[in-house]
């Protein structure tokens, strides 16, 4: 499994505004699994980016870093 950084807007019905972009981290087998995992949330997903080991270590330094895991 890999860790993905997801950039999203909280409401898929509104026009995206860069300043409102949120981020979450998901551990999954691939981008399709991440998108399926987030499907029931009303998010406008802008980008799903797989993190390299170095990038992941950098992100872990943030006190807001939390990983959601895709079950199954």
TrEMBL record:
The protein's name: DNA-directed RNA polymerase subunit epsilon
Biological role stated in the UniProt entry: A non-essential component of RNA polymerase (RNAP).
Coiled coil, from the record: none
Keywords, ordered alphabetically: DNA-directed RNA polymerase, Nucleotidyltransferase, Transcription, Transferase
Protein EC: 2.7.7.6
Keyword Lipid biosynthesis recorded: no
Annotated InterPro entries: RpoY
Catalytic activity: RNA(n) + a ribonucleoside 5'-triphosphate = RNA(n+1) + diphosphate
One Pfam short name: RpoY
Subunit structure: RNAP is composed of a core of 2 alpha, a beta and a beta' subunit. The core is associated with a delta subunit, and at least one of epsilon or omega. When a sigma factor is associated with the core the holoenzyme is formed, which can initiate transcription.
GO cellular component: DNA-directed RNA polymerase complex
Organism expressing this protein natively: Gemella haemolysans ATCC 10379
Similarity comment: Belongs to the RNA polymerase subunit epsilon family.
One record GO biological process: DNA-templated transcription
GO molecular function list: DNA binding; DNA-directed RNA polymerase activity
Top-level taxonomic group: Bacteria
């Amino acid at each position: 499994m890999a860790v993905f950084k997801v950039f999203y807007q909280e409401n898929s019905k509104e026009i995206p505004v860069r300043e409102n972009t949120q981020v979450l981290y998901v551990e999954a087998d691939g981008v399709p699994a991440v998108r399926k995992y987030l499907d029931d949330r009303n998010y406008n997903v802008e980008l799903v980016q797989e993190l390299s080991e170095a990038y992941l270590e950098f992100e872990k330094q943030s006190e807001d870093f939390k990983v959601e895991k895709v079950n199954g």
